[in-house]
Amino acid sequence: MGFPKKDRLSSVLTLGVTAVVVFGMGIGLRLATRTHAREMPALNPDAMALAAEPSTPTEAPPDVIATKEIKIGPPPPGGRRSFFNGEIQSHLQTVSEVETVSGVEMSISDFYLYQGHLFVSVCFATRGVEGWQMGPATLRFANGESSAFSGRTVLDQRGTNDGELGRHCETLEFDMLPAGADLSNLSLEVQSVLLAPPEDFHECETFKARWGRSARMKQLGIVADCKALPGSTQVTIAAKPQGMTEEEAQTIAGQEAAGMILGPWTFTKGNLVVAK
To answer: What's the pTM?
Structure first.
């Protein structure tokens, strides 16, 4: 592939230093806003309505809040703690809304409010045999918004190399909602989805494989290389098209290394169910 000499770059990008640049369109924000939560064992797919096609809508249960103003009270003494468990998950089985963006179908459950914590399950179709994860998400309510949540994988069905789709589901727990947050009007926006992080000491192997499968990088003429060093991973942008800046090439290489698919997926029709 012939490129002008001026476009053969020798500068080396250290991911540990410039991760915000390379992975800034999703990964950095996700790590900054999500708490480190213990991943729950995957639930039985047959028991999860979210893992299947949406069912015919049924009459809303009596505890669904439509127009009544619901506000969050102040946190309890000692601060908030996670309430996620199987009982919580059992209230997140109804598919509320489905959106398809960038070829990826995504659905959410009803919202479930329990002791000031707001829960919602998000599922999306996946491609290939690797694991997936959600990128950043923003909950918007009547008088504000929040991007701080804990996420727990509850389903991770892998796809196949033959094109059979998998399915990934995470339950989000928004446990830092401010006192006075008005939940009478809720929406959720998911900015991106991305492949699961590489295993330790296999970063370059994984990145190179993902770059090799990237139709976007081939189409644009971007060539990247990776080298593992003690304590860091270095990526070299070896070639890029004329007119593209090095930063632009680095951003695209970072997105493709992460397997990132950009949204947003926006959901505005979810019901709010309040724990009795």
So the answer is: 0.71
